[in-house]
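Example complex used in Figure S2.
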Amino acid sequence: MAKGELEPGSDIDGFLVGEKIHTGGMATLWRVTKPDIEQPIVMKVPMIQEGDDPTVIVGFEMEMMILPRLAGRHVPKFYAMGDFARQPYLVMEYIQGYSLYSLIQKAPLPSDEVARLGAKVARAIADLHRQNVLHLDIKPSNVMIRDGGSAALIDFGLSRHLMLPDLLEEEFRVPMGTGPYIAPEQVMKNRSEPRSDIYSLGVLLYYLATNVRPFGLPSAQSQLRKRLWRDPVPPRQLVPAIPPWLQEGILRCLEVEPANRYDTAAQLAFDLSHPEQIELTARAQKTRRDGLPVSFKRWLKSKADNAGPVQPARQTNLAPIIMAAVDFTEGQEALAEEVLVHVKRVLAIMPGVRVACVNVLKLGRLTVTSTLDEDGRSIHVRRLVELKEWARPLGLDQAHVTFHVLEHMDPADALIAFASSNSVDLVLIGAGATSRFRRYLGSVAAQVVGRAGCTVTVVREPRGAQETTDVDEALIDTG
Amino acid sequence: MRIGFFSDIHGNREALDASLAHAGKQRVEKFVFLGDLVGYGADPVYVVERVARLVEEGAFAILGNHDEAAVSGVGDGMNEYARAAIEWTARQLDGASAAFVRALPMSAMDDDRLYVHAEAQSPKSWNYITETMGAERSMRATEARVTLCGHVHRPQLYHMSRTKPPGFFLPQAGTPIPLIGRRKWLAVMGSVGQPRDRNPAAAYAVFDTSANELTYQRAPYDIEKAAAKIHAAGLPQMLAARLFIGR
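Predicted assembly (726 residues):
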């Protein structure tokens, strides 16, 4: 059998080939089955033509390197692959759901829908970046929304694994990406910037919100470069119903300099999930494109910028989201202060950190709890005020701190759900008085430690002198 | 099969022992020594004997330029430190050790892999591979899909498709790298006994043939002890000092 020519009914390494479900520019997708695999699966086969088109081969090699190393619901599950020596293929999960591409016809979408989808895709990108992989070709047809609601990214043919050789870097002297979506630094052939994916997501959100592509459909190289100096029409000029916060979010994604975008996809997901807390800047109020002098300055800079070789680096999260769980119950004041001390320490070593200050307003299980206090004030609002007052000594600007009062019957459940849905990297939580009773029956902190998916620091009240134990003698260095 | 690759041990007993112990924990089943067992370090006989025993049990060992110099005389192109160490080493090697070293091959093929100490186009010239041109010359000189070599004391990885110049990658220890696709790969090991990439830990690598993955590894070892022996042997002090900084 010639390479790349499958037929329904063929058997490839035990996979029975079914119908062809997609023909793309570089590969075909076939439904396949195998007796020991119950889930629906597909086989992706590169279309290798006469003359060995290097783009197809190298793109497929990259996908063969990257897909088996990825895990989680934001990517298709990998099952098997075949080598070039016989029949190159990748077998992966068939994702049940819909492609974001199918939503393009319905654009412009309502703003809350755009934000909801944007948060989903941003969470998927954050998960990919955590695994040291940059997608570098984020566009509607490469995003699937699973039936369960989460986004999954597909097609890693242009992707980059920061811990593995980049086969594409040496192969091509032209920018790689999809014209309308490619980030400025990708145009300059930098394939090591995680924030390129944030830029492409910004293009996607702009398109969904306005039904207009911010940079059109460029075909020539020179047209790709234009985005280095010419800013897009502000979305609110096209669709006045778009709220300022969404324009702020989209235009921040579309900043030419990666440093001016969101630091991480997790932060973008966080903002799109809490639009009321987005810090509005001049971007939100922009009514027209930048004037000629500003564009000209950027044009000069784009000419001067010479993208030198970029050192690949491990994708470390330099701008994590930390969650400070603060309890204002009477008698816990000292503990809340101690949590603050620890937040300050984290800020001292990582200035880019974003702090989500969280307080749980516990609801009664059986009774309808009044949300008003004795004086008739809203308890929710009072807690918010207390949270802001608590965080004031941190001196953080609005872009780096948010406040959340969660109303829930089970404080631990509420905190764990918040940490998970907001991609929190570190939880700081106080643990109350260290009585035996609390220690063994499980404080809220103990439950959070046990069930949260991220690192949790348990903060104790400063120890009194009488509680210290002299253990020096037990720890004599016998070395 | 998980194969461990060890190059440029240079008579450093502590580094060799630590690397082999480290490799044991990585479930390495087969050993390949890519040359320069001796030179610089104070334990040439121990290293040769330990490698010779492993070769009896099925390991591969390849000749390096310092090995050749120790048994056949110093040629041109060696600096004064290397020359002093080689002359000292030649006096240490007994008949059996010298005979083992003298019998080492210049290269070996094992399945689709080539084992060689330096650049493969002319192994006897002992050319260093430090950039893509040298790597390309070496890869074009062999049918092997994967070339594993040493000589440079800095870990490097090159890959090349049929039509394009090679790509370079600076491997990071502990990350399995799939040697995938229809391209050739050239893996330069770091040095077990005298690393020069500013990381003083002993460098080696593990190739998993079924997973087709290469993992560069680092094994910390007792540098103080190896250095003290170099001093005690009267070898140039610089050979001990550089072990601490990995340069």
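The two ends of chain A are 67 Å apart (CA to CA). Residues 215 and 223 of chain A are 9 Å apart (CA to CA).
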